[in-house]
Prior knowledge:
2 copies of one chain form a homodimer. By secondary structure, the first copy, chain A, is of the alpha/beta class. Helix content of chain A is 31%, strand content 16%. Chain A folds into 2 domains: 3-93 and 279-296, NAD(P)-binding Rossmann-like Domain (Rossmann fold, 3-Layer(aba) Sandwich); 96-271, 3-Layer(aba) Sandwich (Rossmann fold), CATH 3.40.50. In chain A, helix 1 packs across helix 10 and helix 4 (96-111) crosses helix 6 (146-157). At the A-B interface, helix 4, helix 5 and helix 6 of A face helix 4, helix 5 and helix 6 of B.
Amino acid sequence: MPKLLILSDRAEQYENLIQAAKLPNLEIFAFKNADVKAKIANQCEIVLGYPSLIRDLLPSLAKLRWVQTLSAGVELLLLPSLRRDYVLTNARGVFGELMAEYVFGYLLFHERQIFKHHQLQAKKSWDGSDTGSLRDKTIGLLGVGSIGAHVAKTAKHFGMIVHGYTRSSQSSPDVDVYHHDDLIEFACGVDYLVNIFPNTPETQKLLDASVFDALPKTAIFINVGRGSAVDDEALQAALEQEKIAGAVLDVFDKEPLPKEHPFWTTPNLWITFHTAAPSLPKDISQVFIENYHRYIKDEALNYQVDFERGY
Amino acid sequence: MPKLLILSDRAEQYENLIQAAKLPNLEIFAFKNADVKAKIANQCEIVLGYPSLIRDLLPSLAKLRWVQTLSAGVELLLLPSLRRDYVLTNARGVFGELMAEYVFGYLLFHERQIFKHHQLQAKKSWDGSDTGSLRDKTIGLLGVGSIGAHVAKTAKHFGMIVHGYTRSSQSSPDVDVYHHDDLIEFACGVDYLVNIFPNTPETQKLLDASVFDALPKTAIFINVGRGSAVDDEALQAALEQEKIAGAVLDVFDKEPLPKEHPFWTTPNLWITFHTAAPSLPKDISQVFIENYHRYIKDEALNYQVDFERGY
């Protein structure tokens, strides 16, 4: 009978959802943190949890065969010092809708000048000038996996032109133009630049001064991928010098963002707290349940991470 | 040769766009306001313009056969004291995209707590709590014409349940449930109530205390139809007493909204300035051009307004 270890602050919710699916032959141990006794850890062959909690337990998981993460990002499990003798699957296919809501919430917030209208209201100042519109604007997606494809679909719904920058997949029917290498050329042609890349060696500080210089002055940069992709000082300078019109950041190199970080007060920068696409137990438990059915039939699991490639 | 009178603050833009279409046999007179000499007005059989400018000229338009308005709303031309011996067509089919941008800009602004995040940022306070999501929420549309259908389509894109309240058309494939008479029952079941009704005798103060009482306490009311549909005092009371969670108003009984009106400072009320879906010359001129081709072939014009019904 396979034993599953759940590691999440919402361990109980996950346990209930998985119990309800009546998976064959599964015994479950659920914990809110990594404070798990060795005699339990060393029996479990499957772990469902957050990379931050799993990492510390890796040495004690004597029978480990499969880790399903609750997040899309798995970089904490990819450090070269850590074992790789198990199958690692991440959560995929469940964040697209939420990410699209976040991205388009901020795109429309910007185009329709919601904050400016709020300020005009406070001054009792009626101003009937036209706002902008998303139609015919260009969105550039850095990364066109399942999240990128969903953002692209929403962009097409609003009549936008979609450019995708990718080294691998280019299967989304909603991307009008694919770019593969020249990031500067890519940046020149977009009104909105959205980073969705995972944290890999190739994406470290990919968004640097040269990219922010290349963007149109009216452009908005949105980061829902990973903070490591951004050169923070270059972004801060671009916003202070009005080289771009604004930025929206959900992710940061260090989270929570330290109090002393200049991003808290950088002009035209809107920050959120890694909340763009939360891992919702009802979504993620489905990913696990489907994968467990494959696991017991010895089929290839969905959403396997390549330890070398990093995603 | 038919003579066209254009009445708009963007008269020149409309003239250029229509000239560019090289319409057969059309002579154009373009004015920024209603200050048109009688000897010009009394030759023109077609008028393209805003109802507010056309109304005052109606008595001098001796040869009038057709009025195409630049707006969807035509109530100023429907007063019983005014002539009705011409064909009145309004602008339709061009506002749906812009209205959907506006409505979903504010829906996402609310669900994703953009303003709250802005306030947290100002306090340098990291708060990783989950925000809401549009998925599985219910939107109730008062009016399901071409604008309502577009809003419904966007709602389905975001995974919402769509209820439509209508006395006439019910042809949108994106409406899940239609209601026809019980407005209170309709209001009970929605998270977002969006008024898109035109200004007609039937819609006067339709949204009164009984409707705001029926809405869930978490509901948001959005008015992109006409201000006359709302009992202002009842809405103000509903917001002050937190009977609903918020309101977004683009239209008002009197516009510009008078400085002394309580809506400027009512809690949880977000106002804009009749800017949700501006009449863009490139869109509206297409409506006119297509209709002109019908006109000279003596075909029925698109988007005819029924003077009795009011839309």
